[in-house]
């Protein structure tokens, strides 16, 4: 689609859309809109391409940082309602619930696995070999616990960075 309109400055775009110039600059940079030239020593940008960068196109996500405070609040209120609906449908759940269910599942598995040396000893495995099997199982479960703990810490760091 060609841009039949005169190129506009950041100031003109900001005034047209009633948003801050920094907001316009950020949107233009994120969309990598190339200047169409200079006017008065300042870059000017193709109008249609600039507007698409700022307000988005149908079907694309619009950056909440580019919205007015009223629209931003409405956006996040809608997101919270969508998340609540997804939770009610069982599409999403709380991180703590997943961690608790995972902990129960791994504890159940660990208990079953730790019973293996006793079962093997009952069917003829020597006590020394049963003890070595127990040590190897304990070491493997300790490694698994360390890996799970590291994964949990990484998830917590990610959640903290998003919040």
Topology:
Elements: H1 10-17, H2 21-30, E1 37-39, E2 42-44, H3 47-55, H4 69-89, H5 95-114, H6 116-122, H7 127-162
Antiparallel strand pairs: 1-2
Helix pairs in contact: 1-2, 5-7, 6-7
Please provide a brief summary of the model.
The chain has helices at residues 10-17, 21-30, 47-55, 69-89, 95-114, 116-122, 127-162, and strands at 37-39, 42-44. The protein has 163 residues and is mainly α.
Q: Which residues form runs of ≥5 with pLDDT under 50?
A: none
What fraction, in percent, of the residue positions are helical?
A: 55-70%
Overall body shape? elongated
Order of helices and strands: HHEEHHHHH
Largest sheet strand order: 1-2
* Mean pLDDT across residues: 87
User: How much of the polypeptide forms β-strand, as a percent range?
Assistant: under 5%
Give the total of domains: 3
Structural class by sheet pairing and helices: mainly alpha
Distance between the termini: 39 Å
Number of helices: 7
Number of strands: 2
Rounded radius of gyration (Å): 29 Å
Largest sheet: 2 strands, antiparallel
What key phrases describe this protein's structure?
3 domains; elongated; 163 residues; mainly alpha; 7 helices; 4% strand; two-stranded antiparallel sheet
Describe this structure in words.
This protein has three domains: 1-60, no CATH class; 65-92; 93-162. A two-stranded antiparallel sheet has the order 1-2. Helix 1 packs across helix 2 (21-30), helix 5 packs antiparallel against helix 7 (127-162) and helix 6 (116-122) packs antiparallel against helix 7. The longest helix is centred in the C-terminal third of the chain and has 36 residues, at 127-162. It starts with 9 loop residues before the first helix and ends with a helix. A hairpin with a 2-residue loop joins strand 1 and strand 2. It has seven helices and two strands; from the N terminus they run ααββααααα. The protein is elongated, with a radius of gyration of 29 Å. With 163 residues, it is mainly alpha-helical.
């Amino acid at each position: 689609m060609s841009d039949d309109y005169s190129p506009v400055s950041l100031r003109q775009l900001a005034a047209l859309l009633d948003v801050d110039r920094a907001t316009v600059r950020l949107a233009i940079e994120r969309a990598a809109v190339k200047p169409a030239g200079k006017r008065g020593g300042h870059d000017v940008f193709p109008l249609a391409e600039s507007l698409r960068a700022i307000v988005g196109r149908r079907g694309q996500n619009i950056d909440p940082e580019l919205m007015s405070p009223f629209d931003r609040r409405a956006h996040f209120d809608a997101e919270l309602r969508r998340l609540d609906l997804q939770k009610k449908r069982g599409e999403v759940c709380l991180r703590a619930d997943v961690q608790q269910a995972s902990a129960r599942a791994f504890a159940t598995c660990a208990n079953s696995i730790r019973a293996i040396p006793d079962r093997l000893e009952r069917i003829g495995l020597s006590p020394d070999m049963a003890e070595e099997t127990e040590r190897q199982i304990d070491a493997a479960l300790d490694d698994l616990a360390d890996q799970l703990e590291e994964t949990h810490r990484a998830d917590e760091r990610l959640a903290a960075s998003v919040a």
